[in-house]
């Protein structure tokens, strides 16, 4: 029900919330009600934020699955050093109310892991993908090379990514999270066709964000 990636943070938040709730019992009624209510709301939000629901991977070949819950902000053509020319970058914004556990988009081998320290500007700012703290991840399979980035946002101050270089990973599997409001950019290679539009709501491990063209379709 709750993600192990946020266990230490969740324990601290619950302890603080319960402590404030107990303290509110010692206050006069006019102070106890707002203090206790704020602590209860904070406790419920903490439990809600670190939830980790199960997901069902959609069937099919050549699928690229959403790595994050959220809303597609933009879809742009690009040339990327990992995926090459003719690539497309799909940016997914994660609000504090979204599930923040990230999932692997395609089955393959992790061949790129690079952490970049940086600022903590708003995740929906286009510059955040280049200036904010972030973790770049590259996966290679028989069908494609895929790149995606965990981007820390204004509230997100920690990226969790326990992946290892040369690790074999499976589509839909959990691999980490970004704590408190953030963004994930996924770069699909030439030959992959987006299946989402700006404004599309995504669910990590379930939503098909793109699909590789079959040989019959060309590309």
Describe this structure as you would to a colleague.
The protein has 219 residues and is α+β, with helices and mostly antiparallel strands. The protein has two domains: 4-49; 63-213, Distorted Sandwich (Glucose Permease (Domain IIA)), CATH 2.70.70.10. It is 20% helix and 37% strand. It has an eight-stranded antiparallel beta sheet with strand order 9-5-6-7-11-3-2-13. Strand 2 (70-80) and strand 3 (84-94) form a beta hairpin. Helix 1 (7-24) packs antiparallel against helix 2 (29-49). The protein is elongated and about 70 Å long.
Tally of extended strands? 14
**Fold-level CATH name of the largest domain:** Glucose Permease (Domain IIA)
Strand order of the largest sheet: 9-5-6-7-11-3-2-13
Mean pLDDT: 87
The CATH superfamily of the largest domain is identified as: Glucose Permease (Domain IIA)
Measure the end-to-end span.
Answer: 42 Å
Structural class: alpha+beta
Give me the Rg, rounded.
19 Å
CATH C-level category of the largest domain: Mainly Beta
User: Main β-sheet: number of strands, strand sense, barrel status?
Assistant: 8 strands, antiparallel
Oligomer designation: single chain
Order of helices and strands: HHEEEEEHEEEEEEEEE
Domain tally: 2
Helical run tally = 3
Explain the layout of strands and helices:
Blueprint: H1 7-24, H2 29-49, E1 63-65, E2 70-80, E3 84-94, E4 101-103, E5 108-116, H3 128-131, E6 134-140, E7 145-152, E8 158-160, E9 168-169, E10 174-179, E11 182-188, E12 192-194, E13 201-202, E14 208-212
Antiparallel strand pairs: 1-14, 2-3, 2-13, 3-11, 4-10, 5-6, 5-9, 6-7, 7-11, 8-10, 12-14
Helix pairs in contact: 1-2
